[in-house]
Fold these 2 entries.
Entry 1:
Amino acid sequence: MTTTNPPAAAVPVTKAGGDRPSTAAGRVRKKLSSPLATGIALVIALFWSVPTFGLLISSFRPENEIKTSGWWTFFTDPQLTLSNYDEVLFGGSASSGQLAGYFINSLVITIPAVLFPMAICALAAYALAWIDFRGRDWIYILIFALQIVPLQMALVPLLRFFSQGVELFGVQLLPAWGLSGEELFIQVWFAHTCFAIPFGVYLLHNFISELPRDVMEAARVDGANHPKIFRTIVLPLITPVLASFGIFQFLWVWNDLLVALIFASGGGRDTNPMTVRLAELAGTRGNEWQRLTSGAFVSMIVPLIVFLSLQRYFVRGLLAGSVKG
Amino acid sequence: MNFDLADQADKFVMLLGGLVAFVVLVGGLLLVLDVIPTRLATRREARLAAAADAGVPIAAGAGRGREGWLAAGFLAPALLLLAIGLIFPAVRTTILSFMNRDSSAFVGFDNYTWMFGQPDIQAVLLNTLIWVLVVPTLATTIGLIYAILVDKARGEAVAKALIFLPMSISFVGASIIWKFVYAYRSGEQDQIGLLNQIVVWFGGEPQQWLLGQGYKLNTLLLIVIMIWIQAGFAMVILSAAIKAIPAEIVEAARIDGTNAWQMFWRITLPAIRPAVIVVVVTITIATLKVFDIVRTMTNGNYETSVIANEMYNQSFRYGETGHGSALAVFLFVLVIPIVIFQIRNIRKQRSEA
């Protein structure tokens, strides 16, 4: 017994809902000298938000100001302008960013690349959980295990699949796709869909397999077949976890650089998403801060909105995918 | 203004085409699966009725095969795409890693001896090792500390969102944010990068951070970005695990008079151990594959490259498919033991539960 801990009897009984911490961590926090704990938390929070905050402020400062003084001088000498955004989005010169077009590319890439995996994974997860057939455990394990194949391993052969088709012992089994220009979007959708399946099936299977058996059996007794059960019973029930998978996939595709660099870059301005353009700007025009700062924010806006409005689902998905194991 | 929405029409046509394809494929599949078995079922019933009339005994378990066909229909798109997009390519890459640069002849283990023999590539492997050791450890520790500090505190949701927010930003966006923090200008000028300004405030000389190779300084500064992104993930998972610790255990420990330190090491940490393992494993795998940060910040120059970046360079910039494939295979080999470890843990956890 240490002196810092009063015996249990001496602790005043508080009402339910009082501020007595009921979790271990809450207790640990209370026991740490409170100013120190608050201090550490504040330092971490500051360290995490100040870089983004600085970039946000910078993106609204006039070009000359950004390049000659730190963003913190804004507080003593506030000057705001929207011209950085105007230029980076709509500017005419080749070096300006022209992000408006790339923004649309990102949208066009993302929407189908989210919808396809959602549907395909839901179908597969349902079959693996509720249709009785031989070898389903093995198929599930195979799909689960494919999560460990790094993307990098698939890139070269998949690119060849698109450009040369499938050839086996000199016989052309499948023709080359020969896509160009805007058609390259198809390649990107295809690649993203393939890469999303292992994780998607795993996440959705966790949830679908725990739906109540009674409901399923009642439906079968009523004469519903699997497609009908899937459409009318399962889909409405799994909406929350489907949403969380959708958010995951959305953030992943929207933020992706590698897949886009390899499968979309052939189309240049017509197909490259914003991440590719930004990486390009950061590399070749590393000192054009007015473009980089505002451009970075343009690219963050959509995921931030999605994230902030759907945070609950996103966190639920994280927990379903990770802790339940 | 030099942007005309009409110029973008082609893209929207593609998008529309994609959406139509989506509806047709998924809707069509469900329709086919719905209609055909129903047809078959009616026909079978008719046959069974006829058989019953004739007095023939009905074979048991005849339904199972039919379910199998249905399952195949549900699984077909997923399995087909996996075969084309992952299984076949992974096998192919493994084969390519034993072939020369344009995959015209077998060269045995040459690509692998190149990988371990070349000093440049050895530096890349060392960097990857540093990434994998530092990022999961620090990200998890910071996430855990923060989760404990803000647990049940006022404004917990906001405090958590602050740390969690970087997860929604692209690695490229995050890199630009930090590029700005590390920005350098020579001593006579005003600094625009926060880090150098802090150095100057303390009377130091501004540094070219990303060029500093001593003690791997630049690599460590890139690692900061990854930690910045991943700590939020660790925090969310660990915070949920902490909240799931039964109140009775905590209460009992408190009555026994444990202090905060003991409480953490003997109650909290053991109780959330499975979650900690999941977090460390997930972040480790993500770190092994990191590519965007290095590419955006330094393009792998100044000895900051990692395996994933080098693989991209070899395969897609220098056309050295053999080298690139060998690096990809090596990455795969590194991930395998981590995953086996995780599967074992999950199994152990299940059998204990």
Entry 2:
Amino acid sequence: MTMDPTLASHLQELRRGTVVVASLTVLRTPGYGYSLLETLAAAGFEVEANTLYPLLRRLEAQGLLTSAWNTDEARPRKFYTTTPQGNAVAEALRTEWSRLDTAINDL
Amino acid sequence: MTTLIDRYVSTALRRIPEGQRADIDRELRASIEDAVEARVDAGQERDAATRGALIELGDPDRLADRYSGRRNYLIGPEIYPAWRRTMIALYTVVLPIVVAVTTVVQLIDDPAIGRVIGGLVTSVITVGAHLGFWATATFALLERLGLTDRVLRRPWTLDDLPEYESGRLAHTQLVPNVVWPVLLIAGLVLQQFTFTDVPVLNPANWSSWWPYLIVVLILEIAWAIQVFRAGAYTRAAAAANAVLALLTAVPVIWLAAQDRIFNPEFPGLAPGSDALYIATMVVIATFAIATVWDIVEITVRAERTRRGLTTQVPGTRGVL
């Protein structure tokens, strides 16, 4: 498959937003930036660190995540956790995702 | 000693609002060190791992923009159409009017041709730059302040669609094309015989130029009727229009330039007076602008008709 610029931009548009759903889902168990990055990469989500870290802070500002510094270990890390509101948003997004998937297959 | 990571983080933090710096500093360092650690665990040298991790994180300025949610554009797509419509209106309507007015003022003030041309060029450039800059700056400010929703998002309605006419002429086109020559002939004749005791226009021209102008104006009426009967502007019609327009404008401007257009006996228009000078300049500017406008407009219409295109009806929505 050739990755011409047109296809690349359409793919990017299609994938935008899936990272939000994935992050809110993964962070039901508290996690920090790099751990989330690795989890998402392993699961097959294409997201870069310089997009993900600012995104986490944005989701926190929107009240979908909370954060707390964990200083128990050698390196202090900021752990993010999905809030109930974040869970509800993730749920709504997943429902929409399924609906779109069905709709596409029915075309 | 500053490490590579220090330099990277400091560069990114420069562009982040003060209040968020401390927290982002800590978090960013932790994340970078996690990435470096992962690379070291995978067998890379620490130096190479640091470089690799930072390169992967990319341009620190872009990262900072993402943290700040800063917009990396001057005019966003939401208000771009409004900005574009404003620009078109400014440069096609406002700029020509401002330049025409300043040029006429300059002509009255000091008619040396070099100064007039210099002033024309200067005002096109400075007025054009100011219009573009301030309008764009205003739009950018609205975008930043988030006022676009309240200020500019007047809901689009069907009334905003401009009207178009096909190449076929509407009745409305006949009327101005006939009325203007009729008014000019009437004015020319009546000012001599009825309006005032002393005619405004030079009676000496009745043996030559005024009858000539009346003939040309009658030809323009004939042209308008002929075009209306043919039903469309053709190339021949546009050419005839251009010839007739020049046959009117050139003698008038030439007469004005020689101070032969106004009656020297008319009170207030004595030779050498300021009033005569201003009146002459107004006549020259009016005929020059109107003639160029007329020739261009009819030529464009004829060309659009030839290509089967429609023409927007002037005054209908779509400009602003």
